[in-house]
Amino acid sequence: MSVSPDSQNERQLPFTPEVLRTNQAREDAAQVKRALAGEPEAFDCLVQRYQPVLYNVALRVTGNPDDAQDIAQMAFLRAWTNLHKFDPGRRFFSWLYRIALNLSLTTKSRRAEITEVPENLASIAASPLEEIEMRQRRQSMNKAIASLPLHYREVVLLRHMGELSYQEIADALGLPEKTVKSRLFTARRQLAEQVSRSEGHMT
Length: 203
Hints:
elongated, 203 residues, mainly alpha, Arc Repressor Mutant, subunit A
């Protein structure tokens, strides 16, 4: 029996990335439901499924294997503790991914504060005037980022602080990759405008 091209295309549809992600989300939702019903082994399945992913994300953000391992474990602990608050209308992976990312970014920020270069060492690498200009530029950028709407601010932080790919950000936020790129483009433009205005006021 011959098979028409349309029939072949229909058979291939279930293997598209979007459909596979949807199927995975349904499987995750079923495991969450079982875990909430008193079957902790269902959550163990989610841990096994996403442990490598969370570890790799945390490692990419922090650059520290020990921190990455701790963050992955803490992310699952927080997810388990707050599982009753999970919205079934959302993707479990996106929810879990965000927990891990927030922990990773917080850890990286704390590490940066601890390892901040002392003033006397910084002066060796740059003149006093250059150091002041660099500090003012960092302050301007930080203020500009903080003033961005949340949906723009999060893609900037994930891309430039978390150093995630567009696809990883899309997975974390549950958005199409093209939306991530569009938001990042707009956010960068707004940042450039705000920093330019800020530096203009300082001159």
